[in-house]
């Protein structure tokens, strides 16, 4: 991120809560003591999720990175490097709902521009990287989310909302604003990546198929 | 050895070498930015591309290992085009601000763009801009110029041992930063300026002062610590502009400590540029003749044993030799170079040297540090210890320390205790580190001035030497009993026998009123109020520091950049410095002052030229004949048996070892006169306060 963080928004200190500690214990046993620095990425996630639970904004403050560095015997700068390299770690505070729109080729061809536009309109956001004034939504442009069969994708926090279009995006944002969490997955009449409106092939069992011949 | 063919020329290189090293062995120049032979290989600049026969595409030679019979081509059309393309990419975001860039003229990017670039750019879009970082008072950043070679990141992490710089973000947004704004806490941060291949990291104190081609360059030796770092003094118009390191693998590799590099501005402040004579309590400027005459008049009738001389930390061996000869001509054996009151066994050279030599650190396999903070006393030597520590791998180079460290040592240290009592436990083997030392093949003990300037210094010294004998640190072909000096003049002075004669007084006794006339040659590092009020003080030196204010006569001498001089580093390496500039005003080279005065006082010293004086030094101690080398350490100290026999009954005192240096940036008259060092001292004071807790 080229925008440097503002010291004012950084909390003075960060301590892992009991839930995080339980997760940390599970993560650390995966690595030998001498290689525990490998746990830096799961640890950053744990910190980010805890911030989400505690403050409603899932991000990793410097204090948390320092604490992770201390736990893993790393130089703090090494943790900063990792956290700033990966776009899925938020090093600045974000809104309660993180709207991540895929705009890579498949999604773009299938209408991700409409999704982006709907996000901006419904959430009241000027552009990518910005947070709505009510602090509820942050809009981010992301690269391929790996769900091209269900393009376009809008990822809200950890959930994929698939087969989006403008109106459905607006409806989703309205629901989120109302405090609801609509079920993740396709927003059209399909199951997972199966065809819309039900199966089109393999409608009968192999036995039945052979009988028909 | 592996045989590689570079452009048709076969060369033999060590297995595991890189293609780049093979090319260099064959005398081919390979352009590079990120590769640095003393840092790990990063391979991210791609400038060192070469063609390897049967390889499908050009390879980055810095990270490509050689194999038997490999054929490397460094000057084909493919290679040339690859370099041009890499250069074009590197220059996409690099500003064309060479005319206002301090690196201009000594810039790798500039040189290589001329040598290997295209001369034009096809990029018309906006260049990216990166915010500058504040890295403290020494290193200036212009981050837009950065080409992300990460040499600075690797240097701070690997050599300096203060991992504070990193490359954050990615791709277009990647930038070198400390992330959280802070000053670099390393004493070696100035080396970042040297290793940065572009103008992203430049010297803050000398920003916009001079151009690299304007300098007159003179080889010299650093005297601000006792390592004897090889330096090049770069001057313009009679003014020393900057000091950079020279490569000497046996001493400083290619690093230089911040104090040595940035004290330069202290060389033109608070200088003594004419003789001063105190009349009725007030200083009056005088001519050399008047000063000499009034000094001669004061000395008239004073018996030799009421005259004394104390030498300071920055003196060259020539002036020490001349002062010693003058004192003996005056009938005095009250001479001392140990203004801090340190105790060593001076009966043999091995008693006060860093015996294993600096390179010995690379061979040691266990280290005990007693009463020393190498990071502050000799930062470059500390980097060498760290290098050994890293190379040995986890647990391969156990290091223990007695006495609190005022700084993070930058390597893992077992802290054994505060005071000398720990030595007793080490001697009787009751703590585990005794076994570690004993089982090591080449154990090393570093004894510092935090231990040697105490009342019980002799007891500590002897305990350490006994421990060295017991643990095999002093054995055939290996002498790991090392004294870490803090004063550049000390070993040279000891070699010249600048010590009290049989009935002579040591420094402390001279100060206490043991002499009527006290000659201080650059000696400032002791509480000046210890000088008895009735003592007549002659101060010969270059800076108006503490002692000059107390003096009755001031004889202005030359700083180390202003005189040719011989210095002996802590390992006993005799090294020569040349004169870069002339001393200011009426100030003169110190030995010439002494020679001139000896004539006035009627005891003319028997040398008129520097060569004659140097011949006299060789006469006093033959080691001064072997310039640039260090005598191989003798296995045993000749006086060892004797020393053990007359073992003193001195007891350890219970008090903890105190660091020999309180403030790294303020240890001598030059650094105290330097505004840059004062700024460093101010900025890093909180850091020190935290470390002390």
Question: Which properties best describe this structure?
Answer:
heterodimer; A: 213 residues; alpha/beta; Arc Repressor Mutant, subunit A; Glutaredoxin; 2 domains; 5-stranded mixed sheet; globular; B: 693 residues; Ubiquitin-like (UB roll); Alpha-Beta Plaits; Rossmann fold; 4 domains; 7-stranded mixed sheet; 28 strands; 29% helix
Structural write-up:
- Chain B: Its cofactor is [2Fe-2S] cluster; [4Fe-4S] cluster.
- Chain B: Keywords: 2Fe-2S, 4Fe-4S, Iron, Iron-sulfur, Metal-binding, NAD, Quinone, Translocase.
- The complex is a heterodimer of chains A (213) and B (693).
- Chain A is an alpha/beta fold and 213 residues long.
- Chain A is globular.
- Chain A starts with 17 loop residues before the first helix and ends with a helix.
- The model of chain A has no long low-confidence stretch (mean pLDDT 91).
- Chain A folds into two domains: 7-85, Orthogonal Bundle (Arc Repressor Mutant, subunit A); 97-186, 3-Layer(aba) Sandwich (Glutaredoxin), CATH 3.40.30.10.
- Helices cover 39% and strands 10% of the residues of chain A.
- Chain B contains 22 helices and 28 strands.
- With 693 residues, chain B is α/β, with parallel strands linked by helices.
- Classes of the chains: A alpha/beta (213), B alpha/beta (693).
- Chain A binds chain B through residues 1-2, 4, 34, 62, 75-78, 80-81, 84-85, and chain B through 130-131, 157, 163-170, 173, 175, 178-180, 394.
Strand order of the largest sheet of chain A: 2-1-3-4-5
Question: Which spans of chain A have pLDDT < 50 for at least 5 consecutive residues?
Answer: none
Strand order of the largest sheet of chain B: 14-13-26-25-24-15-16
β-sheet strand percentage of chain A: 5-15%
Q: Please give the share of residues in helix of chain A.
A: 25-40%
Which architecture name of the largest domain in chain A does CATH use? 3-Layer(aba) Sandwich
Decide which structural class fits the backbone of chain B: alpha/beta
Average pLDDT reading of chain A: 91
Family (chain A): Belongs to the complex I 24 kDa subunit family.
Pfam families (chain A): 2Fe-2S_thioredx
Catalytic activity (chain A): a quinone + NADH + 5 H(+)(in) = a quinol + NAD(+) + 4 H(+)(out)
Cofactor (chain A): [2Fe-2S] cluster
């Amino acid at each position: 991120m080229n925008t440097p963080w503002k010291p004012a928004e950084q909390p003075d200190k960060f301590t892992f809560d009991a839930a995080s500690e339980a997760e940390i214990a599970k993560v650390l046993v995966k690595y030998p003591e001498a290689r525990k620095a490998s746990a830096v990425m799961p640890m950053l996630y744990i910190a980010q999720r805890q911030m989400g639970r505690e403050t409603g904004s899932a991000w990793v403050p410097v204090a948390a990175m320092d604490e992770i560095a201390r736990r893993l015997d790393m130089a703090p700068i090494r943790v900063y490097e990792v956290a700033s390299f990966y776009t899925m770690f938020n090093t600045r505070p974000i809104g309660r709902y993180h709207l991540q729109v895929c705009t890579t080729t498949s999604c773009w061809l299938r209408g991700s521009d409409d999704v982006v536009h709907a996000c901006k309109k419904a959430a009241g956001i000027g552009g990518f990287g910005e947070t709505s004034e009510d602090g509820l939504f942050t809009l981010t442009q992301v690269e391929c989310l790996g769900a091209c069969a269900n393009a376009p994708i809008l990822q809200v926090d950890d959930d994929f909302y698939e087969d989006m279009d403008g109106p459905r995006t607006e409806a989703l944002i309205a629901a989120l604003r109302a405090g609801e969490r609509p079920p993740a997955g396709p927003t059209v009449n399909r199951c997972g990546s199966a065809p819309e409106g039900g199966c089109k092939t393999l409608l009968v069992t192999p036995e039945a198929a052979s009988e028909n011949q | 050895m592996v045989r590689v063919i570079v452009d048709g020329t076969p060369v033999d290189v060590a297995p595991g070498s890189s293609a780049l090293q093979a090319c260099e062995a064959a005398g081919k120049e390979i352009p590079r930015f990120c590769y640095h032979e003393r840092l790990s290989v990063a391979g991210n600049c791609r400038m060192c591309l070469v063609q390897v026969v049967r390889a499908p595409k050009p390879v980055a030679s810095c990270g490509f290992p050689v194999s038997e019979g490999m054929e490397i081509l460094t000057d084909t059309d493919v290679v040339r085009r690859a370099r041009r393309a890499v250069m074009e990419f590197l220059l996409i975001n690099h500003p064309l601000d060479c005319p206002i860039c301090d690196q201009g003229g000594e810039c790798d990017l500039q040189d290589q763009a001329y040598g290997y670039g295209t001369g034009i750019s096809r990029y018309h879009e906006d260049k990216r801009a990166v915010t500058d970082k504040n890295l403290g008072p020494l290193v200036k950043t212009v981050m837009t110029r950065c080409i992300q070679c990460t040499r600075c990141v690797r240097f701070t992490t690997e050599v300096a041992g203060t991992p504070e710089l990193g490359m954050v973000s990615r791709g277009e947004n990647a930038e070198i930063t400390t992330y959280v704004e802070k000053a670099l806490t390393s004493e070696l941060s100035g080396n970042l300026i040297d290793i940065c291949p572009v103008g992203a990291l430049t010297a803050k104190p000398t920003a916009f002062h001079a151009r690299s081609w304007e300098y007159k360059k003179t080889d010299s030796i650093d005297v601000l610590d006792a390592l004897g770092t090889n330096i090049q003094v770069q001057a313009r118009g009679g003014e020393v502009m900057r000091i950079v390191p020279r490569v000497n693998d046996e001493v400083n590799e290619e690093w230089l400590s911040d104090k040595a590099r940035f004290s330069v501005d202290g060389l033109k402040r608070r200088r003594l540029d004419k003789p001063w004579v105190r009349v009725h309590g007030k200083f009056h400027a005088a001519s050399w003749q008047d000063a000499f005459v009034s000094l001669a008049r004061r000395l008239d009738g004073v018996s030799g044993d009421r005259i004394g001389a104390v030498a300071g930390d920055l003196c060259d061996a020539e002036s020490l030799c001349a002062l010693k000869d003058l004192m003996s001509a005056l009938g005095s054996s009250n001479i001392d170079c140990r203004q801090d009151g340190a105790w060593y066994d001076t009966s043999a050279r091995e008693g006060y040297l860093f015996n294993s030599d600096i390179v010995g650190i690379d061979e040691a396999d266990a280290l005990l540090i007693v009463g020393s903070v190498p990071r502050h006393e000799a930062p470059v030597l500390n980097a060498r210890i760290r290098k050994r520590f890293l190379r040995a791998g986890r647990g391969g180079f156990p290091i223990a320390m007695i006495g609190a460290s005022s700084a993070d040592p930058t390597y893992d240290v077992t802290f054994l205790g505060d005071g000398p009592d720990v030595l007793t436990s080490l001697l009787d083997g009751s703590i585990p580190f005794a076994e570690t030392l004993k089982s090591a093949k080449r154990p090393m003990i570093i004894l510092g001035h935090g231990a040697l300037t105490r009342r019980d210094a002799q007891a500590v010294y002897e305990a350490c030497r006994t421990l060295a004998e017991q643990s095999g640190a002093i054995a055939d072909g290996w002498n790991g009993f090392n004294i870490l000096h803090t004063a550049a003049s000390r070993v040279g002075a000891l070699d010249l026998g600048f010590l009290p004669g049989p009935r002579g007084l040591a420094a402390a006794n001279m100060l206490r009123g043991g002499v009527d006339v006290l000659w201080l040659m650059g000696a400032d590092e002791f509480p000046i109020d210890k000088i008895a009020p009735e003592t007549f003080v002659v101060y010969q030196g270059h800076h108006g520091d503490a002692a000059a204010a107390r003096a009755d006569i001031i004889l202005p001498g030359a700083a180390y950049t202003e005189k040719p001089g011989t210095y002996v580093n802590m390992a006993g390496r005799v090294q020569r410095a040349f004169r870069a500039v002339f001393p200011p005003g009426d100030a003169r080279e110190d030995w010439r002052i002494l020679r001139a005065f000896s004539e006035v006082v009627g005891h003319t010293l028997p040398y008129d030229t520097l060569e004659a004086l140097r011949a006299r030094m060789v006469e006093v101690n033959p080691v001064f004949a072997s310039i640039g080398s260090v005598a191989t350490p003798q296995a045993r100290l000749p006086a060892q048996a004797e020393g053990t026999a007359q073992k003193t009954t001195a007891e350890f005192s219970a008090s903890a070892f105190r660091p020999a240096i309180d403030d790294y940036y303020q240890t001598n008259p030059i650094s105290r006169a330097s505004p840059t060092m004062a700024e460093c001292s101010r900025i890093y004071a909180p850091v020190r306060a935290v470390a002390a807790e």
